[in-house]
Amino acid sequence: MKACVIVFPGSNCDRDLKVALTQSMGNEPNMVWHGDSELPETDLIAIPGGFSYGDYLRCGAMAGNSPIMREVVRKAEGGTPVVAICNGFQIATETGMLPGALLRNADQSFVCKDVDLLVAADNERFVGGYDRGQVVKFPVAHHDGNFFADEETLSELENEGQIAFKYATPDGELTEEANPNGSLNNIAGIYNKAGNVLGLMPHPERLISKELGGVDGKTFFDNLVHSIG
Amino acid sequence: MKARVHISLKNGVLDPQGKAISNSLHGLGFDSVLDARQGKTIELDLKDMSKEQAEKEVDRMCLQLLANTVIENYSIEVID
Questions:
Q1: For chain B, how many structural domains are there in total?
Q2: Measured between beta carbons, which residues in chain A are less than 8 angstroms from residue B61?
Q3: For residue A212, is pLDDT > 90?
Q4: Among residues of chain A, what percentage have pLDDT more than 70?
Q5: What SS3 state is found at B75?
Q6: Residues 6 or more apart whose Cβ sits within 8 Å of residue B14
Q7: Contact check, Cβ <8 Å, B70/A103
Q8: In CATH, what class is A3-228?
Q9: Radius of gyration of chain B from Cα atoms?
Q10: Do A93 and B65 touch (CB under 8 A)?
């Protein structure tokens, strides 16, 4: 299997993603610079977290307009799986690959901690390693992760099974206390309509070994590699 | 010529920074403040062109980069 990790000026989770993908794939992903306009042949595109372009103007706005993203959007429309994490999620909403937007956290603070997430929908490719309704633990680290969409979009996401993860208690309850950033409906991650693009604020690539505190993220990448093959 | 773009969050979109500003003003005793919303202004220096042309051009800039119309409104002021 071949994967690409897109690297923007200000990305800071690109190498973590490389480690996670290498561990699960057995070979290294291609690291692709934002200024390139062509992608090497790939079975998976990963857009990493960080602070692309210093979060100037709006998080993800500049990166969303970089040359490589035109190619990423084109590949995504053709069905190539895309996983967009944290700043990557913000970039994906800016390009229109995913609906909605990520606003400043409701309480204005940067949030950096492990959170419990309810697996809210079936999607063999991305969450086939878990059961629907299972609670998994990934870390979050962001200032702008407050998911917003208009009412119509929100109910479409709910009704079409496009909500991947919701912030929850360890027992899977969707409470206000479990929501670290004010996201509508406790939304932590969503799929596009076709189900081949996943955007999420939490970082599965940061929990891929027992030494780092857990392996729920390793399960995510192992399944991704297994299902893409 | 110059153009000024004013960008603000749409009504109904939570504005935590506006909320913090309004709370701080209350803390200073400005009880007259009912609410505050924070936006941003972008000033552009443009080549000379007709006002209509400038408005069209800046509108395209707003749609492509300067504003995210999922959450923001924008208005354009062209100054000769």
A1: 1
A2: none
A3: no
A4: 100
A5: strand
A6: A103, A106, A146, A148, A182
A7: no
A8: alpha beta
A9: 16
A10: no
Closest CA of chain B from A93, distance in Å: 10
Which of B9, B15, B71, B74 has the most A C-beta neighbours within 10 Å, making it the best mutation to test the interface with A?
Answer: B71
Rounded alpha-carbon distances, angstroms, from residue A137 to A44, A132, A147: 23, 14, 19
Q: Which of residues 14-73 of B touch A (CB under 8 A)?
A: 14, 16-17, 20, 64-66, 68, 70-71
* Tokens describing residue A194: 């076709």
What ipTM does the predicted assembly reach?
Answer: 0.85
Q: What is the CATH number of the domain that holds B19?
A: 3.30.1280.10
Q: How many CB atoms lie within 10 A of CB B65?
A: 15
pLDDT of residue A28: 98
Residue B26 domain boundaries:
2-79
